## 1
Amino acid sequence: MEAKVWHFVEFGEFPVEEIDVEEVKDDALKLLRRVRVEMYETSRGTVMKLLDEYGNYIGKVVGGCSIEKLTIGSAYQTPFGVKVTLDCGETIVGWLYLEG
C-alpha cells in the first residue's frame, strides 16, 4: 500500500505525490535563475516573493538566504502543478511552482 501525503489548502485537502527530484531539478533551477524577486520585511524577517515574467506569484523564500545559494530539496506533483522545496543548506526555506 502506497502512502499518501496530504496538502492542506484553504478549500479542502488534496493528495500529493512525491516525485524524483532529478526529474525536475534542472527545470526548477532554470526557472529560479529567471524569477523576479520582490523583497519585504515581516516581523519574522525577510521574505522574497518569487514572480514569473508575467508577474504571477510562483513561490517564496523566507530568511536571509540568497537566490544563488538555494538548492532543490524535494518535489511533489499536486493538482496545481509540480511544487519543489527550496533549501538553504539543510533547511527548507521556501517553495516554487514549476511552469505547467
## 2
Amino acid sequence: MKIDNTSKALGAYGALSKSVRRESTPKTSDSAAASENVAINPKIGAIEREVSAEPAFDAAKVDAIKQAIASGSFQINPDKIADQLIASAQELLSR
C-alpha cells in the first residue's frame, strides 16, 4: 500500500502563495524628484584614483611565496603572526 499526501500539502501551500501579495514601494512624484539635489564630495574621486592606481596585491611576493612553499623552504613565524593579529584586533577595538 502506498501513502502519498504530497498532493494535498502542495495544494494547501499553493493556495496560500497565490493569496499573498507584495506591496511595491511608493514612487515619488516627478516634482519631488526634480527638487532633490545630490552633491558628491570631490575627495571621493581622488581616493578612488589613488586606490585603483595601486595593485590589489603584490604579484611578485605571491610568486615568491608559492615557490618557497613548493621547494619546502617557506618558514612560518608564529610569533610574528600572533603579534600582527593582536595589533589588528587592537586597531579594530580602538575605532
